[in-house]
Design a protein that fits this description.
This protein has about 290 residues and is of the alpha/beta class. About 50% of the residues lie in helices and about 10% in strands.
């Protein structure tokens, strides 16, 4: 599984301040740490950056490429900043994160991806916002893939589809919709790849609960063919799961999804936590911040 490190983010107090000050040191140190952690891409999230995006991305891309050899993901809603990042790159072709399924975004960014031969994340966010179910996700996906491949000749392997992960404490139903979409994905978008902003599942719950939510969600999505994920690079357990190092935990989570009886008394404390978390994510149990204690 390909992993995209999410940590270089304008919303981070430390790294956001470094971005605004154009202080390369902390950002380069983080990039090196992400490379050592085994990330396949480094996401450069500069936010909207309406007035400064072009200048910032033109500075940032070479600064990060100077210390690491892995590809970058350009994460901004500023179209001109995306283009500036592509032009500034001198190493691996950056990934564009992301192109929404909205006419104004597709019309501006699909030609850019085609011109530069760049991979891109197709975010299934349509003209009406968040898709309501897996069928709307499928329709948005088909529209984006058709335009990208047929109108612009983009290789399907350059397209990463993100069905949009939602927080478990807000919209559990959307989680199931994503899983149903993943079951249809290969038929709807043959040759394309899948990705997801994994940490969104734990956006809202207490910080100490975030890692296990992310880890269990990754196990579930892995089973349904997830190709890549945007993740916290410092979660070593997550990295190990992504690379198949915990088959016993994967087997347990699969049993929860399948409704197979589980003898909780025979499990280790860690295994119990994974089972309980899977039940919450899959809607078998109601969410509360104390689900591990019940």
């Amino acid at each position: 599984m390909k992993l995209i490190g999410e940590n270089l983010n304008i919303m981070s107090k430390k790294y956001g301040a470094a971005l605004k000050a154009k202080d390369a040191g902390p950002l380069q140190e983080l990039a090196i740490e992400q490379a050592k952690a085994g990330m396949d891409y480094i996401d450069l999230n500069i936010g909207p950056a309406g007035k400064t995006g072009e200048e910032l991305m033109t500075w940032l891309v070479p600064a990060i490429e100077a210390v690491v050899d892995i590809p970058l993901a350009l994460d901004t809603s500023n179209i001109k900043a995306m283009e500036a990042g592509l032009k500034a790159s001198r190493k691996n072709k950056p990934l564009l994160n992301s192109i929404m399924v909205r006419p104004e975004r597709m019309n501006a960014l699909l030609p850019l991806a085609a011109e530069h031969g760049a991979e891109f994340v197709g975010l299934l966010w349509g003209p009406e916002g968040m898709p309501r179910d897996e069928n709307e996700r499928g329709a948005l996906c088909a529209e984006l893939v058709f335009r990208a491949t047929e109108e612009f000749g983009i290789n399907p392997e350059h397209i990463y589809i993100d069905p949009i992960q939602t927080p478990v404490n807000v919209q559990q139903g959307q989680i199931m919709s994503v899983l149903e979409f993943m079951k249809m994905f290969e038929d709807i978008a043959p040759g394309c790849r899948s990705t997801i902003g994994l940490s969104n599942i734990s956006n809202g719950p207490p910080d100490h609960l975030r890692p296990i939510l992310n880890q269990v969600m990754l196990i579930i999505l892995k089973r349904h063919g997830l190709y890549s994920a945007i993740v916290d690079c410092f979660d070593t357990k997550l990295y190990a799961i992504a690379h198949g190092k915990h088959p016993e935990l994967e087997e347990l989570v699969h049993k929860v999804e399948d409704g197979t009886p589980i003898d909780m008394k025979a499990l280790s404390q860690e295994q119990v936590k994974f089972v309980k978390t899977a039940r919450v994510i899959l809607g078998h149990s109601l969410y509360s911040d104390s689900w591990l204690e019940i």
